[in-house]
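The records we work with from here on pair a chain with its fold. Here is one such record, which you should read through line by line:
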Amino acid sequence: MGKGYKYLAAGLRFAGGIVVFLFLGLLLDRKLNTTPLFLLIGVFLGAGLGFLSVYREVMSESQRARGPEGQ
């Protein structure tokens, strides 16, 4: 189960980013009365940033697996 935790954490980080930015967008929409503009922006921004975070982790893990020479 050792490697499973890495993937679980990456999935939760991805989903968490979407949820956090979704709620921030929802709060802005309610305050500014612009439904659903900021909600949609928040979802896409959260998904993009979450994907970037997971991508960086996967790429760094791939480089570590190749060894110090980067072959």
